[in-house]
Specification:
Layout: H1 10-22, H2 25-32, H3 36-50, E1 55-58, E2 61-64, H4 66-93, E3 99-106, H5 108-113, H6 115-125, E4 128-135, H7 142-148, E5 154-158, E6 174-188, E7 199-202, H8 208-215, E8 223-227, H9 230-238, E9 244-247, H10 248-251, E10 258-262, E11 269-276, H11 284-297
Parallel strand pairs: 3-4, 3-5, 7-8
Antiparallel strand pairs: 1-2, 5-11, 6-9, 6-10, 6-11
Helix pairs in contact: 1-2, 1-3, 1-4, 2-3, 6-11
Length: about 300
C-alpha cells in the first residue's frame, strides 16, 4: 500500500476513532449517524492515504492493527486540538484566563494526595476550567499510555518505571519531574522484628526503580499477598498481616496501627511527574495545571 500525500480530514479521523472504540464498522456507523458502507469507504480511503492497513476485519468486527493503534492515537490528539482551539483563542484574548475541559489521568495515590490541592488552586485562578480526572492503574501503558492514545491531556505517572514512556520524553511525549519520593518499610506498630513478617505487595509496585534494589535484598521474601492497590496493602499491614515496602504518597494514609522505617540512602526512590504531548504542553490549561502541580510538589 503505497500511500499518498493527501491529508486526512477531521471527519475521517472521527471515523477511525469511532471504529476503534466501538469495535466495528456497523457500530461506528450507528454512533456517527452514518451508513455502514460510508464508514467502510472512509476507512479504505484513509488506509490508501496513509499507506497502511489500519484495521483487521473479521466476523466479530474490526480491531486496530499496530499501525491502526498509532493512527487512532494521533487522530484523537489531532481532534483534541480542534476542540481546544476556541478555548485557546479566548484565553489569549482575555489575558490568559483559561476555560474548557481539562482531561487528567492519574494513578490512585496521586489522585488522592497530589491532585486535589493543585486542582483547588487551579479552579480558584481559572474558574472556567472543568477538570475531568480518571484514575488509571500504572500497569502496561498506564497514565502515559492514556496521553499517547489521546484520551488524556496530562497524565501523572511514575517516570522511571518500566513501561512505554520512561522519563526523558520517549514516544513523542513530554515529561517533567514533580517530586522524588523514597520507599519505606511499613509494618504493624510495635512489632519487634518486622523483617520476619510475610511480604504484602500490590500489582503496580513493579518498576525498575524497585526491582533492581529488591533483587539485592536477601531479607525480602516472596510476596504472600498481592493486592490490587497500595491502600489495600496498607490496611492489611495495619491488621498485622505482614509488612510492605511503600512510597511516600501511599504512606500519607498511614494510621497509628503501623510504624514506618526508612530504608537508608541506598533504598529505592521513584520519580513522580507529568506526561503530556508537545502540542498540548503549550495550551493554557495544561500549563496552568503543571504550575500548580509543581507548586504542590515543592
Amino acid at each position: 500500500m503505497a500511500g499518498s500525500s493527501a491529508e486526512l480530514a477531521p471527519h475521517e479521523l472521527r471515523i477511525l476513532v469511532a471504529v476503534a472504540e466501538t469495535g466495528g464498522f456497523s457500530a461506528a456507523a450507528a454512533r456517527l449517524g452514518l451508513t455502514q458502507s460510508a464508514v467502510s469507504h472512509s476507512v479504505r480511503g484513509s488506509e490508501a492515504k496513509v499507506g497502511a492497513v489500519l484495521f483487521d476485519r473479521g466476523r466479530t468486527g474490526a480491531s486496530p492493527t499496530p499501525a491502526g493503534e498509532r493512527a487512532v492515537g494521533l487522530a484523537r490528539r489531532i481532534l483534541r486540538l480542534y476542540e481546544v482551539l476556541g478555548a485557546e483563542a479566548r484565553a489569549a484574548g482575555r489575558d490568559r484566563a483559561a476555560d474548557g475541559v481539562l482531561r487528567i489521568a492519574a494513578f490512585r495515590s496521586a489522585a488522592l494526595h497530589l491532585l486535589p490541592p493543585a486542582l483547588e488552586r487551579l479552579k480558584a485562578r481559572h474558574p472556567g476550567l472543568r477538570p475531568e480526572v480518571r484514575v488509571v492503574r500504572e500497569l502496561g501503558a498506564g497514565t502515559a499510555g492514556e496521553v499517547a492514545a489521546g484520551r488524556a491531556d496530562l497524565g501523572i505517572a511514575t517516570l522511571n518505571a518500566t513501561g512505554p514512556v520512561p522519563e526523558g520524553g520517549a514516544a513523542g511525549l513530554l515529561t517533567g519531574v514533580l517530586r522524588e519520593e523514597a520507599y519505606a518499610l511499613v509494618h504493624p506498630a510495635g512489632h519487634p522484628d518486622p523483617k520476619t513478617l510475610p511480604l504484602l505487595d500490590w500489582d503496580e509496585n513493579c518498576g525498575s526503580y524497585t526491582r533492581d534494589w529488591w533483587r539485592a535484598q536477601n531479607w525480602i521474601p516472596s510476596a504472600t499477598v498481592k493486592a490490587e492497590d497500595d491502600g489495600m496493602v496498607l490496611t492489611m499491614v495495619g491488621r498485622g498481616l505482614g509488612m510492605a515496602i511503600l512510597p511516600e504518597l501511599s504512606l500519607r494514609e498511614a494510621t497509628e496501627a503501623v510504624d514506618i522505617t526508612g530504608l537508608g540512602p541506598s533504598g529505592p526512590v521513584r520519580r513522580v511527574g507529568y506526561v503530556t504531548t508537545p502540542e498540548l504542553a503549550a495550551t493554557f490549561g495544561v500549563r496552568a495545571l503543571i504550575r500548580e502541580l509543581r507548586s504542590e510538589a515543592g
